[in-house]
Amino acid sequence: MDVRDQETRAESGPRSLLGQIPRPVTLRFENVVYKIKTQTEKRCFGLLGSEKATDRTILKGVSGAVKPGEILAMLGPSGSGKTTLLTALGGRLGGRLAGSVTYNGIPFCNSVKRNMGFVTQDDVLHPHLTVTETLVFTAQLRLPNIMTAQEKASQAEAVIAELGLAGCRNSVIGGNFLRGVSGGERKRVSVGQEMLINPSLLLLDEPTSGLDSTTAQRLVSTLAGLAKGGRTIVMTIHQPSSRLYYLFNKVLLLSDGHPFYFGQASGALDYFSSIGHSPTLAMNPADFLLDLANGISTDESMDQRATKQALVAAYIEQLEPCVREEARGEIEAMENENGGRKKEKKQNSGDEKQFQTTWWQQFTILLRRALKERRHESFSGLRVFQVLMVALLSGLLWWRSDTSQLQDQVGLLFFCTGFWGFYPLFQAIFTFPDERRMLMKERASGMYRLSSYFTAYMTADLPMELVLPTIFMIITYWMGGLNPSAFRFFITLFSILFSVLVVEGLGLMLGAVLMDVKTASTLASVIMLTFMLAAGFYVQRVPAFISWIKYISVIHYTYKLLLGAQYSPQQTYECSPGVACRVADFPMIKAVGLDRLAVTAGVLGLMLVGYRLVAYLALMRIGKAPR
Question: Do β-strands 27-44 and 96-103 pair in parallel, antiparallel, or remain unpaired?
Answer without folding.
Answer: antiparallel
